[in-house]
Structure formats: structure tokens, C-alpha cells
Amino acid sequence: MGLGIGSCLLKSGVRVDIIARPGTVAALQRDGLVRKGIFGVHLAEPSQFGAYGSLEELGREQYDHILVCTKSFDSLEAAKDLCEHRLLLREQTGIILFQNGWGNAETFCRFFDSRRIYSARVITGFRRGPENTVTVTVHADPIHIGSLFGGDLSKVTAVCELTAQGDIPCEVTDSIEKDLWAKMLYNCALNSLGAVLDVAYGVLAEHEYTRTIMNGIIAETFAVMKRAGYETHWPDYNDFLKVFYEKLVPLTADHKSSTLQDILAGKKTEIDALNGQVIELGRKHSLSVPYNVVVYNIVKFIEERKA
After folding, report:
1. What gap in Å lies between CA 235 and CA 245, rounded to an integer?
2. For tag attachment on the chain, is the N or C end more exposed, with fewer CB atoms within 10 Å?
3. 11 is known as an active-site residue
4. Which of the residues 11, 71, 155, 183 is marked catalytic?
5. What are the tens digits of pLDDT across the range 103-161?
């Protein structure tokens, strides 16, 4: 996701510095950043951006925005690292979290004023190819950026406009909590089950057996969300199911989940920030969530064996 959003900003003429792993940094410095897929091809030459292995390498630069695109399980370390390099932030610098799951914003609020923290809801599929290449595979809805803590939304308007100018639609929203929980309902049903069965999203919706499991996951997630005092765009989970099967799944039918991609690559998954968060909130609010517990434990088993 980081390379995909970065390529949009670069296409819009924005100065961008990328922090990545050594192999990715070397490929970016050598061959530039390539974006392919449903929004067309764009190449940013190595001279157009910076690629670094750590925040230390940025020196005394300051940035208008910091985009955090790490996996959710790296949120704590990313927040600590950025806190230790506060000189990178101006007084008005916003930190925008392009991450899956629930709980990432709260982690960053342990280190920064909550009004600095913004969240992005993304229902766009990205797949890595070579180290310097990202392919946009599916897109169901514009990226939404907003604040869970009453932050000034005018401060992220430019990021949204520039991302959209770079090909991927992006909008400011004043209802990001509802958006993030809509994404949780979507991800908790599709990511884990798609990973366990090694199939694309569309296949899951074609069969009664998998639909039954997804319906159970969604019903539990909706109940936990309501009990915990959060909201989404639909008053009842059946209303969400209609949109889920008629719009969201068809638009992303060919996509295979990031959880599956992580498992196949032998990497840690984000299951703890997805179904794991539903289980944790269910435990906190005395709600049983057996469907979520089963898929969570199967993914953790597969993850452990693949590691």
C-alpha cells in the first residue's frame, strides 16, 4: 500500500521520501518506483524521490505529512520510532495511518497528541511484484481519510486531492469511525477465510458453506461493535450483508487477501488487528464470538507452521 499511495503523490508532483526494508530501498534507488494495474502504469524515476532504510537517514528534514503504511503488528514500534525522531514533524504535521484493522490510532495516541492522528480507510487491493513494483488489483470505493479524535480535517485535504490526482480516488470524511468499522466487517469475513481456503473473495461468496461462515463472522463483529459503543453506516448487520454481497465482493471478486499473501510469503499476518480485535472486544464486553475464534485460531496455526 505504501508504494501505491507514494506513486500517486509522486505522479502529482509531490516531494516524497520512502522508508523501507533494505532490498526495497536498493531496488527503488536503482530502478525507480513502478505502479501497474487497473489505474494504469506510472514510473517514478529514482531521481524523483528519496528511498531510505531508516528515519535516522533523513537528517534534519521536516515533513508536512507522515504516512504510516506498516502492518498493524508494527504500529507500536513505528510509533516509538517516530516519537524518537520528533524533529521530523512540524507543529502542524499530520500522521496518517494507512493500516488495516482496529486499534492502530490508539497506539499512536500514546506518543502523540490525538489531534495529529488521522486514519485512512482503504478498499483497494495492492500486490507486490519485484521489490520496486506494486500492482493495483481491485478498487471498491475511494480512500477515505478522517480523524477519530476531532482533528482538523482541512489539514488532510491536500493529501486527498493529490492522491486522487495521482489516479486513486481519495476523499476527506467526517465519519471515519463508521468507515473503519465497515472495513472491519468486510476484512474480518474475507481476509481470514480467504487465507484459510486459499481462494479469491468472489469464490467465497459463490458457495452456501462459506457464505454461512462469513455471515456468522459479520453478525458477531457487528454485535461487538455495537456493544463497544462504535457505529458504522448500517443500523443492522443484515443491511450491511446486502451491500457486502451485491457491491463490495463483486468489485473485489478477483482479489486474494493480504493475510493469504503474508502466509504464502512466510510472514506474520495482521489477524490480531482484525478477528483478534473482535475476540478481544467480545471478551471485554462479555460477548461470545465463536466464528471469529475458529478462523482466528486456524490462521494462527497456519501462520506458525509457515514461519
Report:
1. 17
2. C
3. no
4. 183
5. 999 999 999 999 999 999 998 989 888 899 999 998 989 999 999 999 999 999 999 99
